[in-house]
Amino acid sequence: MARKGDVVIDIEKCKGCEVCLSACPHEVLALSNEVNSKGYHYTVKVNSACTGCANCAVVCPDAVITVYREKK
Amino acid sequence: MITPENLVYEKTKVMTDRVLHYCPGCGHGTAHRMLAEVIDELGIQGDTIGVAPVGCSVLAYYYFNVDMQEAAHGRAPAVATGIKRVLPEKYVFTYQGDGDLAAIGTAETIHACNRGENILIVFINNGIYGMTGGQMAPTTLPGMKSSTSPRGRDVATMGNPLKITELIAELPGTYFVTRQSVHTPGNARKTRRALKKALEYQKLNKGTCFVEIVANCPSGWKMTPVQSNKWMEEHMFSFYPLGDIKVPEK
Asked: Which among A6, A13, A19 has the least Cβ separation from residue B225?
């Protein structure tokens, strides 16, 4: 069983570029229907399959993702 | 779950909290962060001086939480030379795009590398002048469309693209020359390792370290960020192959 992880997304800084969506191996992320104050659709978490691999956070150009992972 | 002891990844403190002005999906943001993470990891935040270029990354001094100096267009390696010679114990890097480094600054780049200045040059190559509206750059691929080559770059009339990284690797002054990218998590981590090596070599005073990062320009290429990354993989990497070009002899 993979370790459980979680992501926190700074939606105000997100520009909706979708680079993190293709980097996620478990399809945890998707774009929101709503927009932030800049008018961008932002990334949201849509399921609980996150393993805390941090791939999304590494490729995020705007560093909006913070990753947590359960200790063993 | 969301507690400090479970934290595995957050934005490094070597980057400021300012919102990046770059277009959505631009590789500059990731490249900035990889360099900032290395500075953080090596614990040299107080001993690092960066030189910002002219181009999209002209505002790099707002984002790196280290001492920064802005240089005239293309002259970052010359400014970095001066800084490093006056303060040889500091870590000095330049961060330049292809319009800055491979066009107007070709002379400064080649001479700084040939003299073997102990600086790190980070070169972002997206094959286009991003800031001024997507014009053709010296690094634009043959057949690649830009706002000043709307039918694609015709080598017969517009000349050949310049592979400046290969050129620089031939110079005796360079110690470590590599080409990386930041469009996938794996590539971004490789870039971080390359930048770390380069800053460690700077401590040994061995010569110029040169890290090229092939990047996308979604706005200039007129694509979505995800499409531009795919296009980069399909077209840029065959002309600008990733990997180490010059590594120190054991």
From this structure: A19
Structure-token match 């509206």, residue found: B133
Cβ neighbours around B40 below 10 Å, total = 16
* pTM of the shown model: 0.95
The mean pLDDT of B17-38, rounded to a whole number, is: 96
ipTM of this predicted complex?
0.93
With CA atoms as reference, the chain B residue closest to A58 would be B185
- In our burial notation (b when 16+ CB lie closer than 10 A, e otherwise), range B60-78 reads bbebbbbbbbebeebbbbb
Count of domains forming chain A:
1
Residue type, B179: R
Residue B215 confidence (pLDDT) above 70: yes
Burial of B97 (0-12, 13-18, 19+ CB in 10 A): buried
Low-confidence ranges of chain A (pLDDT < 70): 1
pLDDT at residue number A60 = 96
Query: Which one of A10, A14, A19, A29 makes the best mutation probe of the B interface by having the most chain B beta carbons within 10 Å?
Result: A19
For residue B242, pLDDT beyond 80: yes
Measured at the CA of B35, the angle between CA B32 and CA B39, to 5 degrees, comes to 135
Q: What is the pLDDT of residue B117?
A: 95
Distance from the Cα of residue B248 to its chain's centroid = 20
Domain extent, residue A47, equals: 5-69
Q: Which residues of A touch B3 (CB under 8 A)?
A: 68
B100/chain A closest Cα distance in angstroms: 21
Cβ count near A66 (within 10 Å): 18
CATH class of segment(s) B21-246:
alpha beta
CATH of residue A31's domain is 3.30.70.20
